[in-house]
Amino acid sequence: MTGPMQHDQDLLTASGQPGKNLLTATDLRVCFGSGPLAREVVAGISFGVRPGECLAIVGQSGSGKSVTARTLIGLTGDGSQVSGRLEFDGHDLATLTERQWRSIRGARIGFILQDALVSLDAVRPVGREIAEPLRLHHYGRAADRRARVIELLRQVGVPEPEMRSRQLPGELSGGLRQRALIATAIALDPQLLIADEPTTALDVTIQAQILGLLEESKRRGRALIVISHDLAVVSRLADRVAVMRDGLIVEQGPTAELLGHPQHPYTQSLLDAIPSAHSRGTHLSDSSGKARAPAVLSARPGGLAAQAPLLVADGLVKRYKGPDGKVRTVVDKVSFELHRGETVGVVGESGSGKTTTGRIVLAVTSPDEGEVRLHGQPWTSLSEGQRRARRQHVGVVYQDPLSSFDPRWTVRRILSDALPAGYANASRAARIRELLHQVGLGDDTLDRRPLLLSGGQRQRVAIARALAPEPEIIVCDEPVSALDVSIQAQVLDLFADLQDELGLSYIFISHDLGVIHHMSDRVVVMTHGRIVEQGDAEAIFRHPAHPYTQRLLASLPQLSLQPELSGREPAYDRSA
Amino acid sequence: MPPAEQRNNALMTVTNVSSAIDQQPGIVRLGGRARGLSPGIVLAWLVVAFLVISVAWPGLIAREAPLAVDPAHPLQGPSLSHLFGTDQSGRDVFSRVVYGARESLSIGVAATGVGLAIAIVLGFAAGLGGRWADTVISRFLEVLFSFPSLLLALLFVAMFGAGVGSLIIAVGIGSAPGYARMIRGQVIAVRNAPYVEAAKVLGHPPLRIMANSIFPNAMRPLLVLGTLGIGQSIVWASALSFLGLGAAPPAPEWGAMLAAGRDFISSAWWLEFFPGAVIVATALAATALGRHLQRRLEGRLA
Q1: Contacts of B294 (CB under 8 A, 6+ apart)
Q2: With contacts defined as CB-CB under 8 Å, which chain B residues touch A391?
Q3: Which chain A positions have a beta carbon within 8 Å of B201's beta carbon?
């Protein structure tokens, strides 16, 4: 590839659109600490963005993308040194004092943080929160500000803005909170809006609404810089994409070109790692796209129909009493079957009841009605004492592995604890090693505590623990949602390989349609505690019958907006 | 959405170390609070060292026997021959303070032990015994809470008579409700932790889960609590001895020494000042070390 500096020259001169850059960063460097502990987190990057244009900075955690975003609003924090040129509308931002920053931040450069719940003051009504930047920058009188707040809330699509402006952030849904945050960021009509992972915490349908909002903002002539690890989100919004790794921009260019014909191997590997319809039955983490054993995915469903199901969920109902005293049905008449060696994907948005369903299958929550049968025998209707001996057949992998490990234990102790009784010391040690190797970890992890492992390694340990009692079924509750896309790809591959090797059955719970489509033989679509549709994965994703499934698929940001460029087919039928 | 990523983000902001946490987990430790010893901690360790020697080999420091009377030199001020002066019978106050450490400290440690033992039984019974046991024990603890702890201890001594034995039990009972409530909360938190659920899903019987996971994790904060509690117990025990309810004079116990010196407070300040200062120094050292431990453990395990 060409060096970053040279790339920068291309970028600054060879633009498709006329007009000057609103913001230009040249050889930007950010360094934390000093002396031998100094770490250069952003190592000389150059980019620019024009009015009405969106630049996306994409990379994994630790690539320096969030620090880059903070640098643009002068919030890198104590102990950091920023060097290089950072030109914004004729000013050099790098030389600003904190006092001067305050007149630019909010007023001319708006900033949207990842998590609205943490970013908003929990005890201040959102209307007051939005009015805050107006007040700080001396916008009109109190009454004018109130009117402006209502107008802003309406602009970002918040229904009943008068009422909402008096509510606390905790009383708003995730989507409304993110809208309120965007309203705060655009309150003073900034020329540049920076959004750090603006939709990462949101369900797919709400994500689509927020992306639409940002698109609208761009159309009005605002410049946009979006930080994300999600290439699909970016492909919808961005005009240009910069891919960051280890503090450097490895590749940047127009979105369609970069995603269609990635030049740098790292960009290619990021694209390959995205689970979707295209990747079904192949490995994600190596570029070869190696196919899984053909017998596994295609031949299974038909051949297995004759067999008795391994697990049957029959008419599950679970009700909870809310804090307001109202009884809510979180799981409502849920029935499905799981056959040996197959994966049933349970997909739905937050609050759809998919996690509760998983917990009922695990028999850690008991259903109010209905039952789960295992091997045709009662399972959830047993007493815990009767069930205990059979628990080894059903394992679990959680979203957050760290909290599922005893904080005092090393990996060795965790795995040893999970082994069934009857292992002698020598065979126990050998079995622990075997489990570790099975999930792709080395012996060096044995005596480490999970706290000091990376997210991917922790999830591997969690999988090893689930495998220890030699289960037939593993319930996976959002097992890859907390992982970066390339780590996620490796873990998904591991799940697939283990299934081929050990004949495991998975109940795979996820909000991520791509992950579900990649992994599942059959899919269960849930909303409001009910199953709206279930059946063969390919059939459901190609021709969704229920309007909710159609809406879900239509909201999914798609990677290949321009199939003629990328050479890929659109993944889903949007005409429905 | 992903909590792990959020946590990483939070970590980044806090430590200003933003890259490659996943790849280089060691940075988590480097990025935390600097682990140098502050002067306060060094001082606290020195006090502890002094106390340990006083308890183990008082003869090394003190030159005179604690009960040796010297009628020729009563009520002498601090000097080189008598560092802390002498009392009304000519006994060396420094030696009495040194020898007194054994009694005062063992009362403090034993009382804390009694308090924790009662608290562990009550706390675990409340946390694991089901709703009924929890309600009964919690209400009982609330009743105890409505008494000031020292008053509770006084009540016990009044009922069972003065003396070192009942002093220990009294102070223990006085401090138990606070510990018990903390342990109960801890047990409930650990009981509902995902790793306990994971153990249940693996098919482990409840007794094994209790012994392997719930008990050790719920007990983890007790090391810190206990260290913090020793200082408090020493102060309480001294207060009770001062009131004449603990060690009897002329035994060299700090509280009792305070009580005996009370009559001479206008003429011989050193009789009150030095035992008082040692009580304060001991309590401060125990508290400082407790807090230090707390920070270290929380940094490592949180």
Answers
A1: B221, B224, B228
A2: 200-203
A3: 362, 364, 391, 394-396
Search chain A and give the residue with CA nearest B298.
Answer: A407
Chain A from 328 to 347: CB within 8 A of any B CB: none
A4-108+190-272 and A297-542 have identical folds: yes
Distance CA A244, CA B152 (A): 65
Q: Checking DSSP bridges between strand A54-58 and strand A240-245, what pairing results, if any?
A: parallel
Q: A63 to chain B nearest CA, in Å?
A: 6
Question: CATH homologous superfamily for A4-108+190-272?
Answer: P-loop containing nucleotide triphosphate hydrolases (3.40.50.300)
Global pTM value: 0.73
Cβ of A467 under 8 Å from any chain B Cβ? no
Name the helix (H) or strand (E) containing A337.
strand A327-338
Separation CA A430–CA B174 (nearest Å):
52
CB contact under 8 A, B301 and A67: no
Q: Which residues of A touch B194 (CB under 8 A)?
A: 398, 400, 403-404
Contacts of A296 (CB under 8 A, 6+ apart): A281, A341, A499, A500
Residue of A57, A71, A406, A507 to mutate, interface with B, max B Cβ within 10 Å: A406
Which of A388, A404, A454 is the closest to B203 by Cβ?
Answer: A388
- Considering only CB atoms, B205 lies closest to which of A64, A79, A388, namely A388
User: Which pLDDT tens digit goes with each residue over B69-111?
Assistant: 888 888 888 888 888 888 888 888 899 999 888 888 888 889 9
For B239-299, give the DSSP string. HHHHTTSSSPTTS--HHHHHHHHGGGTTT-THHHHHHHHHHHHHHHHHHHHHHHHHHHHHH
Domains by residue range for chain B, with CATH: 59-301 (1.10.3720.10)
Q: Where are the domains of chain A?
A: 4-108+190-272, 114-184, 297-542
Nearest CA in chain A to B23: A454
Residues 46-85 of A with CB under 8 A from B: 61-64, 66-67, 76-80
List per-residue pLDDT tens for chain A, 576 residues long: 444 444 444 444 334 445 688 999 999 988 887 777 778 888 889 999 999 999 999 988 778 888 888 888 888 777 788 888 888 888 888 788 888 888 888 888 988 877 666 677 777 888 888 888 888 888 888 888 889 999 888 888 888 888 888 888 777 777 788 888 888 888 888 899 999 888 776 777 778 888 888 888 888 889 999 998 878 778 888 999 999 988 899 999 998 888 888 888 888 888 888 877 666 767 777 655 555 544 444 444 445 455 788 999 999 999 987 667 778 888 999 999 999 999 999 998 877 888 899 999 999 999 999 999 999 899 999 888 889 989 999 999 998 888 899 988 999 999 999 998 878 788 888 999 999 998 988 888 898 888 888 888 899 999 999 999 999 999 999 898 878 888 888 899 999 999 999 999 999 999 888 889 889 999 999 988 899 999 998 889 888 899 998 888 887 766 654 443 333 444 454 443
Record: contact A247-B19, CB cut-off 8 A: yes
- Please check whether residue B213 touches A, CB under 8 A: yes
Please give the CATH superfamily to which domain A297-542 belongs.
Answer: P-loop containing nucleotide triphosphate hydrolases (3.40.50.300)
One-letter amino acid of B266? S
Tokens of A532: 């709206």
Do B4 and A487 make contact, defined as CB atoms within 8 angstroms? no
List the end-to-end C-alpha distance of chain A, in Å, as a whole number: 42
- What's the first-to-final CA gap in chain B, in angstroms? 21
* Exposed e or buried b per residue across A93-110, where buried means at least 16 C-beta atoms within 10 angstroms of its C-beta: bbebeeeeeeebbbbbbb
Cα–Cα distance for residue pair A356/B167, rounded to 1 Å: 53
